[in-house]
Amino acid sequence: MIIHVRPRFLLSRDLPARVDLVDLQIPEFGFHAHSGFEVTARRIRGDIDVLAVCKNNESKSADGILLETPGHVKCFSTLTCWRVRFEPKPGFEIDRTVTHYVRYVILDEEFNVASDDMALWNLHGWRPRVPAWSKGISPAIGEPLMELKRGNRLDTCVDRVQDGFVIERFELFTMPTIEVERFAEATVLRERMPGFDDRFKTTLVLNHAVAGSPRPSIVSHAGGLYEGG
């Protein structure tokens, strides 16, 4: 199975900050990537104030990473650590590491790709793969995202705040599977999509991530009936 995830940090124009990726962990896959080695974080586009984790490849800045697993996966977690440095007021500097935890739940086993890019679920020319929860929800609100100060987020996003700024964020995100061909088409149409050749090959090291194994309790809150597909 191919999984596309995009650990991202929203940069604030009102509060300039230096934001650097520290590392990215996916415990269920035994995956631990360090900034400057396996992965890095770059702006998706020059006009978009979002840093996205991508493979540390000098030839391309991609929106996210691809993971290949040996079988279908039903749930997994990403833990992304960022170092942030900023001055909320003159003479008062904050330098800290903040963490973003996302619990992903994959709703079905129909196809062999899953992506947290909501635009791919309703790509023109393809049958909609739209979960009920996302009906009418903008990707800017629904997709996983880390930020210094909480913006407009869903109630599946819970923050721990210190000094008025987010230091830990916990999100639950459910997503459908999509066709390999749909994703391949998107890599042609969209310049910043990661390519299959840049995928990380992983193993399943925790049983609850495997499709068909007993579900952990958090999954019962995920919902996920399809509409239009």
Give the helix proportion (percent range): under 10%
Nearest-integer average pLDDT? 88
Report the principal-axis shape: globular
Total domain units: 1
Spell the H/E element sequence. Answer: EEEEEEEEEEEHEEEEHEE
For the biggest sheet, the summary is: 6 strands, mixed
Strand order of the largest sheet: 4-3-8-9-14-13
Low-confidence stretches: 213-229
CA radius of gyration is: 17 Å
Overall strand count: 17
Alpha-beta classification? mainly beta
What is the helix tally? 2
- The amount of beta strand, in percent, is 35-45%
**What is the distance, rounded to the nearest whole angstrom, between the alpha carbons of the first and last residues?**
21 Å
Structural commentary:
The strands form 4 sheets. The chain has a 6-stranded mixed beta sheet with strand order 4-3-8-9-14-13, with no helix packed on it. Strand 8 (75-89) and strand 9 form a beta hairpin. Helix content is 6%, strand content 42%. It has 2 helices and 17 strands. It is mainly beta. The protein has helices spanning 139-142, 180-189, and strands at 2-5, 8-10, 17-26, 31-34, 39-43, 50-55, 65-68, 75-89, 92-106, 113-115, 130-131, 146-147, 157-162, 165-175, 177-178, 200-201, 226-227. The protein has one domain (2-227).
